[in-house]
Amino acid sequence: xxxxxIPKEDKFFKLxxxxxxxIFKAAKLMKEMVDNYSEVESKAKEIFDAEFEGDRIxxxxxxxxxxxxxxxxxxxxxxxxxxxxxxxxxxxxxxxxRMLVYKIEEPTIECKKLVGIILRMTEVITWGVSNMKNxxxxxxxxxxxxxxxxEADRVTRDAIGRLFDEEKDPIAVIxxxxxxxxxxxxxxxxxxxxxxLESVVLKNA
Length: 205
Hints:
The chain is an all-alpha fold. The chain has a single domain, classed as Methane Monooxygenase Hydroxylase, Chain G, domain 1 (Up-down Bundle), CATH 1.20.58. The chain contains six helices and no strands. 37% of the residues are buried.
């Protein structure tokens, strides 16, 4: 007989909710930064602080996993979910850092679009994670994240194509190509989280 998620262990769900909310916060900060591109260093510091907080939450999840005998779902899924959610934050931080290091003067339209997609994906992740305990609507949220990742792929492809067509400075091409790819990697990590959530649903429904 197959059982659903064990209701007695709430700690993991609370920690994953914290992690998802922190990721969404970092994405909102990045969206605010590219939409109003001033005082970039102070805005970037807030994103770096969110990444630091994400590390703390991830370490707490792993610590709790190591001392918990009965977990609400597969230990491997807990570990992978924590790791992939942390990857999203790492990539948001990395993209933000590239903007500072490369001294980006103004984000492009495509950059803003990709950051907007990341914001939307992280918002949907918070919904999916919040429904893990009762498995409600998680699958629908995963479908939406996959759709958004496909949209990000198209934006990135068009952005890089336009970059090579219109940009004459080879250094600028290198900078923007790497930044676009870093943002796309962020959307890929969001999709990785959706795939793990979907796996949890299939195993526990």
